[in-house]
Amino acid sequence: MTQKAVARARRVVTALSLFLVLALVSAFILDRLFPFPVDRLEPAPSTRVLDRNGKSLRYFLAPDGMWRFPVTLDEVSPDLVTALIHSEDRHFRHHPGVNPLAVIRAMWSNLRHGRVVSGASTIPMQVARMADPHPRTFGTKLVEALRALQLSAHYSKEQILTWYVNLAPFGGNVVGVGAASWQYFGKKPDALSLGEIALLSVLPRSPSRYNPLKNPEAALKVRNQVLKRFARDGVFSEARIAESQSRPLLASRAAVPQAAPHFCRWLRSRLPEQAVLRSSLDKRMQGIVESAIASRLEELRRAAIGSVAVVVLHTRTREILAYAGSPDFWDTARQGQVDNALSRRSPGSTLKPFLYALAFDQGHLTPGSMLLDVPTDFGGYMPENYGQDFQGLISARMALATSLNVPAARLLARCGLAPFHDLLRRGGLTTLDRPAAHYGLSLALGGCEVRLLELVNLYATLGAGGEYRPVRPLAGGDRHGGTQIISPEASAMVLDILAATRRPEMSDSWEFTVGAPAVAWKTGTSFGHRDAWAAGLSQELAIGVWAGNPDGSQCKNISGTLHAGPLLFDLFRMLSPGTTSLPRFAAPALRRIPVCALSGHRPGPACPTTLTQAIAGVTSLPVCTLHKRIFVDPETGLRLHGDCLLSRTAREETALIWPAELVAYRMAQGAPLPGLPKVHPDCPDVPEEKGPLIQSPSARTPYLIRPDAPPEFQRLALVAAPGTGAAVHYWYVDGRYVGHASPETPCFVTLEPGRHSASVTDDLGRGSQIHFVVRELADPQRGTALRDAARPR
């Protein structure tokens, strides 16, 4: 070789080297300046909600309105992967993103026709086009080629193929093989037949033309053509291809699952970006719940109750097993799409068990403790019982079992509003979003708002020995991290009370019914007669039922016992058949202690005793003050005291010193309680115990009211001269509690014409009563009042 030739060769090599170096540097810089938009290769998926066993519940379109079910290559039939590669890019596993021979062939064809008629698109080039779609031009093809090279330089063949199978268009709003397999054949992409695979392998080329739903003949024809090509190229065995060609192409639009629509909508709103949600729901149990609701619906509608919601939780794990927000999601006339399981509603008496649990944990109450159920004025707030009557003295067990309001309000005043509010908040009631003082003592009676889902979880907390856990809408997950908000001992005492409550579906002797599931349960009826509630626990399930109208309208005579309780027990019989025990958990500090059989306090020397449950080291009861040992003259029954006992024969007896409020109530009802016997006159060392003496009103003179004067300016003063040592006067008019005050402070009432009674009792249990008359002045212009009844203040 001549010297000139050598020099020329060196210059060519140098130029080529510089070109390659510049090309590599340019490629590196461009790659850094214009990275591949990988985020566009993973658009938001459709959402599939499955039950705990993998059964479909509901599918949701992706935000852009597409059906898009991303899959991994492991979830796709290997035959489908082979068919796609053979149909779209036979040399996919060998080229760097662009097939040079195919590019040269396509360029020659396009130049001959003067337009793009052949694309030579490899799978990486198609993925690049899916990431940034543009009209087909020479320029865009060049960009796609460069992007394909860039994509192949950074990602594996498996990753690129995964993107392709998930982004390929399959007609209409169907994207990816996951959605196409389901939409056209109702199958998963790993369960397709060879004939179905053949069609899907070419469907992305012309989704409209080969759509098996719209053009079944064209789809069948192209399927057979593809199968012949597979046979010719030896892709699959001739026997399989022959068998596939002999089969018809059976394609039908898949029905979109619509089970548990309220639950699925709520779950998807919590996890909107997750493609597959394997929920905790049990599809079988969901069907049972919906059937049970339907069976009770006509009966409820006759009572003007338009909707029902049910939530079923697993007591220990807090998994949501069934969830119905209304009887029919699609019933727009009855607002079926309103999710009543999440609506904020007044809970009625359903929070009372947790107040009693708090009192047990604070140590000043046991199930055997006696509570007062008498008219009580809390600074202008006077709660009433559901039946508008009063029991007088009642045990905590019976007060909770019969859901009395007044003992609950008095108990809350004793326990403290803030601790109870805090307990409910820690128990997951997020709707208690105002300070405790906002709710007042009505909090114990339902003067707040709760959600059914959160309320059922609060009951599940009781069934788990007082350990709170958040609800779990997904299967599996963390089973740890609970928070103890109620002691196991207090939980056990409350469950024992609730389990003994009479059940609506059985007679009074229901506990002897063979096969009846053991259930601890509570009902509630909201303020304004708008909501009926029932919540209960079996050994493993916590179930809650709400009944009412979604718009909050009133339902006359609505009752938790009548309208929610029966459905609750329908569900327990269906879901927990044969369950004979309540939730089990350790309560090591639970003891049985002796208490006074009447007061429930620590027994004094004169008390008859009984046993009740208590918490060792926590329960601290006062000594009973109801029973008092006295001595009486056996002939007269008069009380003896001091030196009288030395000169007379005496008999020892036990007297009852009743609470003053109870004495006042019973006196006002005309059924006074017996007090201490009077002191024998021969016992001068005992001072006479005088009770209050009513001074106003008077029984001697009628009171006149003027019809032309406002009632608030004609109020009658209630005044009594106090007895020895009295600190409080309790006033009743016509058997109705009107208030209490110190002896020197009068109470005022407005009265209608007629005969009336007034009674007063002091805090020592002494009292008096009178009858008086109120008349209306017939001629206000000429008449004069005999006594001034109006003492405005």
In brief, what are we looking at here?
The chain is α+β, with helices and mostly antiparallel strands.
General description of the model:
The protein is elongated and about 155 Å long. Helix 8 (194-202) crosses helix 9, helix 9 packs antiparallel against helix 10 and helix 13 (352-362) packs across helix 19 (488-499). Among the domains are: 66-246, Orthogonal Bundle (Penicillin binding protein transpeptidase fold), CATH 1.10.3810.10; 689-776, Sandwich (Immunoglobulin-like), CATH 2.60.40.10. Mean pLDDT is 87; it is low at 506-514 and 782-793. By secondary structure, the chain is α+β, with helices and mostly antiparallel strands. The N and C termini lie far apart (131 Å). It has a five-stranded antiparallel beta sheet, with helices on both faces. A five-stranded mixed beta sheet has the order 21-27-26-23-24. The chain contains 22 helices and 27 strands.
